[in-house]
Write a structure and sequence with these properties.
Elements lengths: L3 H9 L2 E7 L3 H12 L4 E4 L15 E2 L3 H5 L3 H17 L5 E10 L3 H18 L10 E3 L1 H7 L8 E11 L2 H14 L3 E3 L2 E9 L2 E9 L5 E11 L5 H5 L10 E11 L9 E5 L5 E7 L2 E5 L3 E2 L11 H14 L12 E10 L25 H5 L4 E5 L5 E5 L5 H15 L24 H17 L4 H11 L3 H10 L16 H9 L5 H8 L7 H19 L3 H14 L5
Helix pairs in contact: 2-7, 2-11, 12-13, 14-15, 17-18
């Protein structure tokens, strides 16, 4: 990535076709699509890229089986098609994962419904990019071979189906890099504090650099609001009496070591409150989630509660054939906020209209947020502000395409000859030119890495995380072999990635590196804190920090963790 300070100076001196507010997956996708169509683009994010919802998802690129259960056939079809496409465009980062849905002798009717639902799911997933993996019925022996942790006494069979898994924060960074390769400019830690309009259209974005306090007014022809859960705040800058469209829905995840609940597959576990909990092998750990509850706290700092953690452990123990799990088994936990769309738009409804009541069950799960649609909405708001709200990680590319189509329809003067249609359906992510380049380059990466005596887990991690840019990390190790040291003992990320994150990915804090570039903070908080001093001192040498800054970084990292026990 370009030097941040240089990019900021360039941004002050020009007018962009588009300024996009929001550096999550939706903003990243819009920047990529717009840049591919020849538009000049600036993306700004008030925190780090993917710092909020887009780094705290269930990591699935999926068709949304439970959305099918709720009757959202169109959404399920779109998500399924996008899933298959992303497996082609980012083969290193979006990978197939199988799920087992265990059934008991009490689940016969549910089992028949599930088979019918999965048959329909298979049909909706078929298409140009579908690889033909359909669901199948499993005998108990097959289930326990796939998931030894499951209790054997009640399970009489099950079903296996396929979806895809990714690293959500790394996907955001990968899409941002793709946008930059097409000419987009991006800046993290740059907050939009005010919007100014001329001729009834937002033309200026007043910003504050959150790193040094500097302010600037950046100019654009069109402003796009892709701020996720903060979208209403952005619209409120141009319409003071704006009624919120977003209903925040909170979801938490916990992480366990594999030894706590051994499984070789993902699990899709029905719950007594008619929901589902995912159990996912991810980053050499086991991720469990999610809850779905109404949220009214600080959008910047959602945290899990003890009751929410206990709820997930309770579901897991319901299926557990080993010793009961408790909070001491949890190595990390985090909470994210879903930007769900209110079914009532109070900006159009009569004054007497009210928001629908949010009902909460005994487990803290909001029935209304669980049932709220995961569809997205694109609309031209006050002063020509283009807004996109709602949506899913899986369909970010489709959302971005629709946003830019809408922008060019509303502002036809922006249309470039080459920009009438999106190119993102054909644009590989991760630096690969095509599938053949992916296969050839991964072989080169593996060969070079073995000669540097990197262990197989680290080799796989580097390719899966950085794509073709893993070659740049190997260059760093060739210069300084000490950089092949692992950051944390039980996980494959290495010290060379710290250097790469700072020099090439705009990481400016310890938390940026450990939470969103390497994900270690989301896997094992104890190991992460133990390794933080060596990481921060290396960053000190790269960024010329004084000792006061070093201490502040360590304090900030620890403060970002939820105290589990």
């Amino acid at each position: 990535m370009k030097n941040r300070e240089r990019t900021f100076e360039l941004a002050k001196a020009r007018e962009y076709d588009l300024i996009i507010i929001g550096g999550g997956i939706v903003g990243a996708g819009i920047a990529q699509d717009a840049a591919c169509r020849g538009l000049s683009v600036l993306l700004i994010e008030k925190d780090d890229f993917a710092a909020h919802t887009s780094s705290k998802t269930t990591k699935l690129i999926h068709g949304g089986l439970r959305y099918l259960e709720q009757g959202h056939l169109k959404l399920t079809y779109q998500l399924s098609q996008e899933r298959a496409l992303l497996e082609q465009l980012a083969p290193h980062l979006v990978k197939d994962i199988s799920f087992v849905l265990p059934l008991t002798d009490k689940d016969r009717i549910f089992g028949w419904k599930a088979r019918i639902g999965l048959t329909l799911y298979d049909l909706l997933s078929s298409g140009l990019f579908h690889d033909g993996q359909h669901h199948e019925k499993l005998e108990p022996k097959e289930i326990f071979e796939a998931a030894p942790a499951l209790a054997q006494e009640n399970i009489t069979g099950g079903l296996r189906f396929h979806d895809a898994i990714t690293d959500d924060a790394r996907l955001v960074l990968t899409v941002i890099k793709s946008a930059m390769s097409q000419g987009a400019h991006v800046l993290n830690y740059l907050e939009a504090v005010n919007l100014k309009y001329h001729d009834k259209v937002v033309r200026e974005v007043e910003c504050r650099d959150r790193l040094d306090g500097a302010t600037a007014t950046l100019r654009c022809k069109v402003c796009v609001n892709a701020a996720g859960v903060f979208s209403d705040q952005i619209i409120g800058m141009v319409k003071k009496n704006w009624k919120p469209r977003i209903i925040p829905g909170k979801g938490i995840h916990i992480v366990l070591p594999f030894s706590a609940f051994p499984t070789n597959t993902g699990l899709f576990l029905p719950t007594p409150d008619k929901r589902y909990v995912f159990v996912l092998p991810w980053q050499r750990a086991l991720m469990v989630g999610t809850t779905d509850s109404a949220y009214s706290g600080d959008l910047n700092n959602p945290v899990p509660t003890s009751d929410e953690i206990d709820y997930l452990l309770q579901i897991l123990n319901k299926y557990n054939g080993g010793r009961p799990l408790n909070r001491t088994d949890v190595k990390a936990a985090w909470a994210g906020i879903r930007p769900l769309i209110s079914p009532v738009d109070l900006n159009k409804a009569p004054e007497k209209s009210k928001q629908p009541e949010t009902k909460v069950d005994n487990n803290g799960n909001s029935l209304s947020t669980f049932k709220l649609s995961r569809e997205h909405e694109i609309f031209i708001g006050p002063k020509g502000l283009v807004n996109v709200i709602g949506g899913k990680l899986t369909n970010y590319r489709l959302m971005a395409e629709q946003v830019i189509d809408r922008v060019l329809e509303r502002y036809p003067d922006l249309t470039r000859v080459e920009g009438k249609r999106t190119r993102t359906k054909r644009l590989m992510l991760g630096g690969w030119l095509d599938k053949e380049d992916f296969l050839a380059s991964t072989a080169v990466i593996a060969s070079r890495a073995r000669k540097l005596f990197l262990d197989p887990a680290t080799i796989d991690h580097l390719t899966s995380t950085y794509g073709k840019e893993a070659l740049t990390i190997l260059d760093l190790i060739e210069i300084n072999p000490e950089l092949k040291e692992r950051i944390c003992p039980d996980f494959p990320p290495i010290m060379a990635e710290v250097n790469y994150s700072v020099e090439h990915e705009m990481a400016v804090s310890l938390e940026d590196v450990l939470s969103r570039r390497t994900r270690l903070a989301m896997l094992n908080q104890e190991q992460c804190l133990a390794s933080a001093p060596k990481v921060v001192h290396y960053m000190q040498s790269l960024l010329d920090w004084d000792n006061i800054r070093v201490e502040a970084e360590l304090i900030a990292l620890e403060a970002s963790f939820y105290k589990i026990n």
